[in-house]
């Protein structure tokens, strides 16, 4: 097990080892295996690509079906919610944490359907939560980012360390695929700020409806993003500084979680815009981490498409979802499982005794000699003899 990150200095919390990419040689073997399965090559489309990605992540072909899928929901409140940028009050965050623990939320239902289990981590909920989820709590809510920093330097480091430790705990506990989820009233506002700061986008390009705000709420949210972005752009080149200035403890923890999963060579299914914002920062902290992630879906939040383009990730699903909690990623997880099982369990042409149209190993076609056609020069035909002339005897003359 890696050294516990609690001993890290503040300045080291955001320092990650070089990221080793998934195994390209194994990916090529997976592509070659797909060509031998009992189907026309390429006929399963994206499933073939996803299965090869899982094989490359695991470093083995055929890949092993997932045995322990884990979703971690990072919960935290945000001071900016007091500015009317959400359709719900902040106390809903703590109430939803209790709902997660009772098994009554969408994430619980979708996880059960996908064969995953759920963990909840209170990183910055503005209220009391059960001791089992508050082990890594950094503070009660994050700062009002349009006028103050979200976190102190020490809190930022603690949040990143929390995410790293949670990733280590899950991977050491046997998790072979991870899902990051989020819960926090107002969390799409700091997410939009982070995305705009890292891509140079304008506030109107990244602002969305979040939990379903009306037009007046949209105007307030746009103004909050604009003001926070003025502060964030001053530290845009420093990912840790960006989390401190305009992120939040929950988002910082997610960034640490995603980067650590990549460092531990464990695949992650990403969710929507909040997880996407954390992923963008994680890629800045540990370049190459994105090779270990697959985008579960495309959120209707406009900033999420910017995230996907920036990270060069193609979503598995596009269902018009915007809930968060890891719901989109969990909806996509059975597709990833199916892609893995296709490559691992489907018969090859040779195994099934089915004739393949692949002649690459058929030497008879190369060694058979087709005789060249023989042409015989035709004998000359003699010209026909001329017919004897015909003479007509004139009648005798009558003299």
UniProtKB/TrEMBL annotation:
Biased composition (Polar residues): 354-367
Catalysis performed (reactions): 5,6-dimethylbenzimidazole + nicotinate beta-D-ribonucleotide = alpha-ribazole 5'-phosphate + nicotinate + H(+)
Molecular-function GO term, any one: glycosyltransferase activity
Region of interest called Disordered, as start-end residue ranges on this chain: 354-399
Keywords of the record: Cobalamin biosynthesis, Glycosyltransferase, Transferase
The enzyme's E.C. designation: 2.4.2.21
Family stated for the protein in its record: Belongs to the CobT family.
Protein name: Nicotinate-nucleotide--dimethylbenzimidazole phosphoribosyltransferase
Source organism phylogeny: Bacteria, Bacillati, Actinomycetota, Actinomycetes, Pseudonocardiales
């Amino acid at each position: 097990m890696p050294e516990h990150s609690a001993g890290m200095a503040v300045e080291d919390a955001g320092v990650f080892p070089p990221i080793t990419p998934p195994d390209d040689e194994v990916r090529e073997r997976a592509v070659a295996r797909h060509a031998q399965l009992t189907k026309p090559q390429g006929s399963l489309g994206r499933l073939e690509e996803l299965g090869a990605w899982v094989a490359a992540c695991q470093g083995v072909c055929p890949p092993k079906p997932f045995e322990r899928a884990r979703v971690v929901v990072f919960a935290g409140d945000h001071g900016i919610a007091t500015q009317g940028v959400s359709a719900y009050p902040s106390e809903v965050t703590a109430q939803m944490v209790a709902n997660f623990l009772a098994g009554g939320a969408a994430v619980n239902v979708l996880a059960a359907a996908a064969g995953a289990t759920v963990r909840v981590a209170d990183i910055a909920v503005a209220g009391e939560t059960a001791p089992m989820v508050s082990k890594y709590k950094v503070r009660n809510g994050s700062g009002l980012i349009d006028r103050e920093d979200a976190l102190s330097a020490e809190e930022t480091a603690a949040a990143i360390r929390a995410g790293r430790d949670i990733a280590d705990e899950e991977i050491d506990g046997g998790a072979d695929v991870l899902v990051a989820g989020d819960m926090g009233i107002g969390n799409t506002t700091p997410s939009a700020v982070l995305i705009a700061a890292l891509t140079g986008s304008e506030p109107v390009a990244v602002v969305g409806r979040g939990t379903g705000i009306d037009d007046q709420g949209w105007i307030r949210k746009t103004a909050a993003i604009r003001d926070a972005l003025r502060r964030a752009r001053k530290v845009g080149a420093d990912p840790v500084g960006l989390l401190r200035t305009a992120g939040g403890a929950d988002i910082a923890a997610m960034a640490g979680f995603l980067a650590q999963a990549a460092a531990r060579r464990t695949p992650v299914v990403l969710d929507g815009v909040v997880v996407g914002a954390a992923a963008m920062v994680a890629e800045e902290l540990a370049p190459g981490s994105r090779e270990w992630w697959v985008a579960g879906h495309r959120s209707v939040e406009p900033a999420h498409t910017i995230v996907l383009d920036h990270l060069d990730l193609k979503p598995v699903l596009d269902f018009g979802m915007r809930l968060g909690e890891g719901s989109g990623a969990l909806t996509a997880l059975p597709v990833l499982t199916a892609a893995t099982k296709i490559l691992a369990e489907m018969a090859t042409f040779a195994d099934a005794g089915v004739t393949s149209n692949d002649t690459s190993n058929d030497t008879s076609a190369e060694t058979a000699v087709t005789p060249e056609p023989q042409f015989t020069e035709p004998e000359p035909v003699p010209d026909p003899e001329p017919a004897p002339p015909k003479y007509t005897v004139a009648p005798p003359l009558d003299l």
